[in-house]
Design brief:
mainly alpha, single chain, about 70 residues, globular
Length: about 70
C-alpha cells in the first residue's frame, strides 16, 4: 500500500495513519481505482499526504481535498 510507505517519511502518528489510510481507500474507491499497481494510486497517496500536512485529519475532507487537487 503506497500510502503507508509514503506516510512513514513524515511525522504522522498511528491515529493519523489510520485516518490517512481511510481517506486513501475512499479516494481510490471514488476514482474507481482497483489496481494498486496503477501509477495513479501513488499520486493519490501523495495528494492525501499533502492535504494531511496542512493539518486536515478528517478522512472525508482529506478525500475531497485530494480529489479537488487531482481535478485542477
Amino acid at each position: 500500500m503506497p500510502i503507508v510507505r509514503l506516510s512513514q517519511n513524515h511525522a504522522f502518528g498511528p491515529e493519523d495513519i489510520k485516518v490517512i489510510s481511510a481517506a486513501y481507500e475512499q479516494t481510490l474507491s471514488s476514482l474507481g481505482l482497483i489496481d494498486r499497481a496503477d501509477p495513479l494510486t501513488k499520486i493519490v497517496a501523495e495528494k492525501i499526504i499533502e492535504c494531511a500536512q496542512m493539518g486536515e485529519r478528517d478522512p472525508v475532507r482529506l478525500r475531497d481535498c485530494a480529489l479537488k487537487s487531482l481535478q485542477g
